[in-house]
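# step 3/5: fold
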Amino acid sequence: MEKKIVVSKRFRKSTLQIYDYLIKERSQKIGISFLNNLQRRVELISRHPEIGKPSQLRPNVRSVTLQPHNRIYYRVKINTIELLCLFDMRKKKLPY
């Protein structure tokens, strides 16, 4: 059973930053491909919330890889999944 997805401001902001970067530095086609991949991954999380790797810093947070350098961090609740952030793994400090 799919759970309802709730998107945090932080997740929305980081997604828009990555998308803007891709369309400016690469191409609109690559930016759209990024959004399509993100949508498919979020749908997978919605259907299988336990698929993500548990966080070492916070026990109720999980993460999945979106692309080689990006991870989706999310929290599973009773009826919802909260998308916390889209994180660039090249940064040194993990958010969760």
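# step 4/5: annotate
Residues 34 and 87 are 14 Å apart (CA to CA).
# step 5/5: archive (pending)
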